[in-house]
Amino acid sequence: MMRCVTNYEILQRNNRGYAMAEMSGKIPEEARENQKIYVCAFRETDNLLVVDWQQAERMAKDWHVRIRLPEGGPYRLEACLSDKACCLEWEKRILCIHHVGVGDLYILAGQSNMAGYGRDTAYDPPCMGVHLYGNNGKWDIAAHPLNDPTDTIYPETAEYNSGTSPALAFGRRLKETLGIPIGLVQASLGGSTLDKWHPREEGSLYRAMLRRLNVVGKVKGVLWYQGCSDATEVSAGTYLERFCEMVDLWRKQVGNIPFLTVQLNRWGENKAGNERNWGILKEAQRQAAIQIKDVQVVPSYDVTMSDGIHNSSGANVVLGERLALTALRMVYRKPGSIAPSVKRVEYVDDTHIKLYFQEGLYVAPTDRHAEGMHVEDSQGLTECLLAEWEQNGMLVTTKRPFTLPAKYHAFWQDNIPAFIPHDTNGMPMLACYGVNIEAG
C-alpha cells in the first residue's frame, strides 16, 4: 500500500504552484464488487471544493490515488465508497484527512541554537499553517520545543532538554507574508560538530536527515545554525573549506536549495585565547555567504542569551524574523533584508580606515560609536574610537597610528558593545575577523 498523506502534513509545492498528494487505504470488507472509491479535497477555512471528486484505482484489497492540490490550505481530503459518480457528498466516507497544506518546507539543521534552548518567556505562538515534522515521525502544528524527543524514531538526534527555537518565528513570518503554509523538518542536535553533518566525514546526522527527507519529500531550503563546537584550535581554520564542500555535497543529493545561516553569538565562558578561534569561525560563516551561491547569513552577536551560550526566547524571535526577512529577499525576491557585510577595508591614513559594504546598503553607526572594532598590525591590536557615516561606507578612526600590513576585526570578542552599526531596517552588520586593509 502506498504512503498516505497525513493530518497536518505540508507538501512541498513545485515551481508551477501545486503538489501531488498520495491517498491510499484498505477496501472496506463490506464493499461490493461494483462499488468504486472516489476522493476530493475541500478548503477547510470555507468548505470550498478545490479538487472535484475523482476515481481512485481499486486493487484486490487496497485502493490508491494521486490528487493535484494547489498551493495553500489547510485542506480536508475525503474518500468515499459508492456505486455511482454523482451526489458523492452523501455517500459513505471511508477516509478523512485534515489540515493538509501545500507550501514550502525547510530543514532545521545544526546544533543547540537551532534545536532551541531558550528558557525564558517571549510571545512566540504556534499557528495553523506552520507545521512540524517532528522526531516522532509525525506531522503536527509546530510548537516549542521543536526538538521534542518523545517517541523519537531518529535516535541520532535524541536530546532531552531543548526549549525555544528561532524556526517557529521564521515559519510564522513567511506564512503571514507569503500566504502559504510553511513546513519545518526538525533534524538538529545540540553540541553537534560539522563532521556529523558532512557526507564525507562522520556523517551520522546527515544520514538521519536523509531518512527524514525520504518521508517528507523535497524541501525548499535549509535553516542552518552551527559552529560553536568547531570554534577550536583544531577546527576553526578548516571550517570554511569543509562547510563549502558540505553544501556542495548536500545539493548534489537534495537539489540546489538555499542555505539560510546564523553567525555565532558570544560565549560567556570563552577563554581569552579562544576568542581568536571564535572570530575565525565567525569570519568563515561570513565568507561562506560571500563565496557560495544562495547562502546567506544573519548576525546574532547582539541578541540576549538565556545562559552562557544559548539564545533567549526573545532573541530566537528576533533571529527567526531576520532569517525570514533574508529568505523573503534572497529566496522569494520580495521586499526583505540582508545583513550588511564588509566588502572592502581601505587605508586612508595612519589613524583612519574606510569600510565599504554591499552596494545599495546604507550602514550607519550609532552616535559615532566604534566599540567592538579593532585594527591589528605588527604592534598588536588597537581599538577604534569613532565610526562616522560616509557615502558608500563608514570612516573609522583608530586609537593609535598603525602601519600596513594590517587587518580589521569587528564584534569578534565576547564583550559586545551596546551600540552597533546597522542598516535602515535595523539589521546589524555582520561580525568580521582578519579583513585585509588595502592601501588607498
Compact summary:
With 440 residues, the protein is an alpha/beta fold. It has three domains: 10-100, Immunoglobulin-like, CATH 2.60.40; 102-330, Rossmann fold; 344-438, Sandwich (Immunoglobulin-like), CATH 2.60.40.1220. The protein is 18% helix and 31% strand.
Describe the model.
- The longest helix is centred in the last third of the chain and has 18 residues, at 313-330.
- The strands form 3 sheets. Strands 1, 3, 4, 7, 8, 9, 10, 11, 12, 13 and 14 form an 11-stranded mixed β-sheet that branches. Strands 15-16-19-18-17-20-21 form a 7-stranded mixed barrel. It has a 3-stranded antiparallel β-sheet with strand order 2-6-5, with no helix packed on it.
- The mean pLDDT is 94.
- It has helices spanning 112-115, 167-178, 204-216, 239-254, 275-291, 313-330, and strands at residues 10-12, 18-26, 36-43, 48-55, 57-58, 62-70, 72-82, 92-110, 130-133, 139-141, 182-186, 221-225, 259-262, 295-298, 344-349, 352-356, 373-377, 380-390, 393-398, 407-410, 432-438.
- α2 (167-178) crosses α6 and α4 packs across α5.
- The radius of gyration is 25 Å and the shape is elongated.
- The protein has 3 domains: 10-100, Immunoglobulin-like (Sandwich), CATH 2.60.40; 102-330, 3-Layer(aba) Sandwich (Rossmann fold); 344-438, Immunoglobulin-like (Sandwich).
- By secondary structure, the protein is α/β, with parallel strands linked by helices.
- The protein is built from 6 helices and 21 strands.
